[in-house]
Specification:
It is a single chain. This protein has three domains: 112 residues, Orthogonal Bundle (Butyryl-Coa Dehydrogenase, subunit A, domain 1); 107 residues, Butyryl-CoA Dehydrogenase, subunit A, domain 2, CATH 2.40.110; 151 residues, Butyryl-CoA Dehydrogenase, subunit A, domain 3, CATH 1.20.140.10. The strands form three sheets. It has a four-stranded mixed beta sheet with strand order 1-4-5-8, covered by helices on one side. It has a four-stranded antiparallel beta sheet with strand order 2-3-7-6, with no helix packed on it. A two-stranded antiparallel sheet has the order 9-10. Helices cover 50% and strands 15% of the residues. The protein is α+β, with helices and mostly antiparallel strands and 383 residues long. It is built from eleven helices and ten strands.
């Protein structure tokens, strides 16, 4: 039996979040990009709605939401402020990692303020010499008595300049490759820790940048999970975040397309609305079709995760197709809206800049195709 319907509670949540996105997020979407500021008060508002703790159990202050509900949140927040979807997608990934692998003491200390939006935690895997090849990272963590000493550089880290702490992935046994990676919780106020922001093309408010760790000392209790198991802890989480990223891209693409439909209904050319011309209506029809196909593919992947079924291939499909289709759709909408859409008086150019960044983060299109091919051919055929 197939059932493509959401529950009544999920539909009600969608309505609440769409209203929130329209009234609270969309009106100021361009403001934070222009100012280059992180709107922490909006993050905290999303915390009040339960969005920053969706994948965290209620005993730690979270919403204990399933993956499909989390996907609804990513899609709807993407309609209002694309950058703020990090509160859903990044927090879901980090929330799962901490809930599944952190010690009880760490969970009690960090999960409640993280779930409420009071504390922000980033995740730091990528380095200057290793992005998609996460197993090739160079950051080292050496055990010395009751402490670990961490040194290295992380690059392209979302929330680098605004987070209170980070999950840092470092080599604890360099000779073991991916089997020698561990995860640690590192607060941003420690001696030897420094963050420097980038001047990015898009997603400006999220404070992306590099982290520098010069013999940063942390207690051994800040180890997350087992030593040398960090790589495997994060890879499963990426299957969730990739599906959420696909949906947030579809949210912003659909918002842009709906705005464009209203424009071409009223804009006159040669005595009739633009929407009457097939050169205008056919591309819009194609884009609506792509959005629906990718949306349902993403929700199917989330359903598989909720039901404990394999979904790595589906997640890679969503991560590849979502941002790729979104940038094509938004680019077309920019052209259909004419020269005003090329100005910074409209949000379309910003949405285009923002979604392009998602074509890189959490694995490029080429990496997603490798994952898909491995799912088709089997692991023995991977490069």
């Amino acid at each position: 039996m197939l059932n493509f319907s959401f529950t009544d509670e999920q539909e009600e949540l969608r309505k609440v979040l769409r209203d929130f996105a329209k009234s609270e997020l969309l009106p100021t979407y361009m403001e934070w990009d222009r100012k280059g500021e992180f709107p922490r008060h909006l993050w905290e508002k999303m915390g009040e709605l339960g969005l920053t703790g969706l994948r965290i159990p209620t005993e730690y202050g979270g919403s204990d939401a399933d993956c499909i509900t989390t996907g609804i949140a990513a899609e709807e927040i993407g309609r209002g402020n694309f950058s703020m979807t990090a509160a859903v997608s990044s927090n879901a990934l980090i929330g799962e990692i901490l809930n599944k692998h952190a010690s009880e003491e760490m969970k009690k200390e960090w999960l409640p303020p993280f779930a409420s939006g009071e504390k922000i935690i980033g995740i730091a895997v990528t380095e200057p010499g290793s992005g998609s090849d996460a197993a090739g990272l160079k950051t080292r963590a050496e055990r010395k008595g009751d402490s670990y000493i961490i040194s290295g550089e992380k690059s392209g880290i979302t929330l680098a300049t605004v987070a209170d702490a980070f999950i840092i992935f470092a080599k604890t046994d360099p000779e073991l490759g991916a089997r020698g990676v561990s995860a640690f919780l590192v607060t941003a106020d420690l001696p030897g820790f420094e963050a420097k922001g980038y001047e990015d093309m898009g997603n400006v408010p999220t404070g992306r940048g590099s982290l520098y760790l010069d013999e940063v000392e942390i207690p051994k209790e800040n180890l997350i999970g087992e030593e040398n198991r960090g790589f495997y802890q994060v890879m499963n989480g990426f299957d969730l975040s990739r599906l959420l990223l696909g949906l947030q891209c579809m949210g912003t693409a659909k918002q842009t397309l709906e705005e464009t439909v209203e424009h071409v209904k009223t804009r006159q050319s040669f005595g009739q609305p633009l929407g009457k011309y097939q050169g205008v209506s056919f591309p819009i029809a194609e884009h609506y079709s792509k959005i629906e196909l990718i949306r349902w593919q993403s929700y199917r992947g989330l359903w598989l995760r909720d039901n404990g079924k394999p979904h790595t291939t589906e997640a890679a499909m969503s991560k590849w197709l979502g941002p790729n289709a979104a940038q094509e759709i938004i680019h077309d909408c920019l052209l259909l809206n004419g020269h005003y859409a090329y100005t910074k008086e409209m949000p379309i150019e910003q949405r285009l800049r923002d979604v392009i960044g998602i074509e890189i983060g959490d694995g490029t299109a080429q990496i997603q195709k490798l994952v898909i091919a491995r799912g088709i051919f089997g692991k023995e055929f991977r490069p």
